[in-house]
Amino acid sequence: MRAILDDRQRAHDPKHFMANGARLANPEQPRRIEVLKAGAEAAGCRFEAPQDHGLGPIAALHSAEYLVFLQTIHERWSRIEGASDEVIPNIHPDRRTASYPRSAVGQAGFHQADTSCPIAAGTWQAAYWSAQSAIEGADLLSSGEQAAYVLSRPPGHHAFADLAGGFCFLNNSGIAAERLLRAGKRPAILDVDVHHGNGTQGIFYERADVLTVSLHADPERFYPFFWGHGAERGEGAGRGCNLNLPLARGTGDDDYLNTLRTAFEHIRAFGTDVLIVALGLDAYEKDPLKGLAVTTPGFNRIGSAIAKLGLPTLLVQEGGYLSDELGQNLTSFLRGFQDA
Ligand SMILES: [Zn+2]
Q1: Which residue is catalytic, options 12, 62, 157, 158?
Q2: Where are the transmembrane segments (predicted)?
Q3: 215-252: per-residue pLDDT in tens?
Q4: pTM for this one?
Q5: Which pLDDT value is given to residue 290?
Q6: What DSSP assignment string belongs to 248-298?
Q7: Architecture of domain 2-57+122-339
Q8: pLDDT digits (tens, 9 = 90+) for 75-127
Q9: Separation of 191 CA from ligand 1 center, angstroms?
Q10: How many whole angstroms from 265 Cα to the centroid of ligand 1?
């Protein structure tokens, strides 16, 4: 299978995030690239670099204001006396007015939902090439490829149109879906990351032209807490075009695969002709973020089940953090997908 990766994605090397009030090492490390790349190559993927498709396909989903912020905030932040090396917000205006702050501190609060998406000198470059990789993958499918794997890192599914969060800056899966939509396709996004794809849901929530489906650990007691509940079905024209399938903490392979069938019913009923899989591997039983209990052979079964839908499919990497088996889990998924 053809696979896409750009080496400039390594430029984002976040140091910290806050968990339960403690300052911990940020798990979204550039070393994930090596591990995931080796895992994909073990399943027969051949990597190529993307072309530069410019800002247009990114700005199709993200606001110009937000893109200016991502490109300029680190430099402006570093002019503040005593500021940290990384841009980390210390204020979060959950209930917003129409006004937009001019200060770097205010804008960081406006555009960063939490502390897990620190912005340093290389962040924009890495996020840009992560998104370009997803666009390239979408174009491969438009030109007749049946499947492709995109090693997008930093990941994207927690990023809204104007908001970073949860290690994500640009919504790679969503950008790929929009690209395919504009090429005349009818895309669905199936998010199998252990966390709800809240940014993706938010971007398409009032739209009927992209179906969004997410299986994830129940957000009652798990990130992202405020989104991902079963009652969130879309609004306006998008009502019924968003499906959340929250799973009890610790759900294993069999129950996961059963729930996946419900997702497939909706994907078929939507008339989907191209599928984007937001491929998180953090549903793994030993993932450091500990939400669900999918096993390494379980990923093989999930990959196989998705392939049997028979749709042209773009696999876009989302989460999945460093454990001894991260690469093996990707290999297992991709082998299951290709063997079916
Ligand atoms: Zn995740």
Answers
A1: 158
A2: none
A3: 999 999 999 999 999 999 999 999 999 999 999 999 99
A4: 0.97
A5: 85
A6: -TT--HHHHHHHHHHHHHHHHHTT-SEEEEEE--TTBTT-TT----B-HHH
A7: 3-Layer(aba) Sandwich (3.40)
A8: 999 999 999 999 999 988 777 788 899 999 999 999 999 999 999 999 999 99
A9: 10
A10: 24
